[in-house]
Amino acid sequence: MNNFYVSPEQIIKDKSEFAKRGIEKGRTTICCETKEGILFVADNPSQYLFKTSEIYDRIGFAGAGKYSEFENLRVTGIRHADMKGYSYSREDVLGRDIANLYSQALGYIFNNEIKPYEVEVVVAEISDNNEQHLFHISYDGTLTDKGIACAIGGKSEELSEKINKIYKKKLDRSDAVTLMKEFLSNESSKRILNFEVSVLEQKSDNRYFQRIS
Q1: Which of 142, 149, 165, 202 has the fewest Cβ atoms surrounding its Cβ within 10 A?
Q2: Which of 189, 182, 153, 140 is nearest to 65 (CA)?
């Protein structure tokens, strides 16, 4: 029986290419900061399988790639946030901590499992002093603090570059929705898009996350 040797570099390369191909099959989601809060605009053909959602009071979630895998991460984040908020206080639940949780989970899966998760996610947060944060977590667990806009899924790297060349300052929500829809439409000009739009904004009843029909 022959024992085949595969270098660690080749294993990492193969896993990365596999994950990227899976993520590119998923349709794109754009997250951006606006004057009112944080906006999510997703290309989503389903009316029931959402790509964006609430994690906790001031924390939102966006996923791209394989739905079952980023949905598993979303549920894990909600359970972690609920447990920490119950054990300590609601103010102790931070978007950075949820992002670190996802980073560790995806990093462990990428390095130790045969098949990596075919996902990338964004954790969005509005802090106590109304600062806005976008944390991006890639398939291998790499965690980055993004600027005021980023894209995940599809050809996200190319689209993020285009967005950041144009979207240099925060717009009103309505103008930002129009612009992000244009970016998604230009990326997928050969088919009709169905948009999922949601926001993370401070409301009078202290609810931040809301879906926009």
Answers
A1: 165
A2: 153
Coil, strand, or helix at residue 166?
helix
Q: Distance (Å, rounded) from C-alpha 99 to C-alpha 55?
A: 11
Amino acid, res. 20: K
pLDDT at 191: 72
Using DSSP's 3-state secondary structure scheme, residue 29 falls into: strand
Instruction: Return the domain boundaries, the chain.
Output: 11-212
Domain 11-212: CATH superfamily, name plus number? Aminohydrolase, N-terminal nucleophile (Ntn) domain (3.60.20.10)
Q: What is the mean pLDDT of the chain?
A: 92
pLDDT greater than 70 at residue 189: no
**At how many degrees (to 10) do helices 95-112 and 67-87 cross?**
130
Closest CA to 16 of 136, 152, 116: 116
pLDDT digits (tens, 9 = 90+) for 13-24: 999 999 999 999
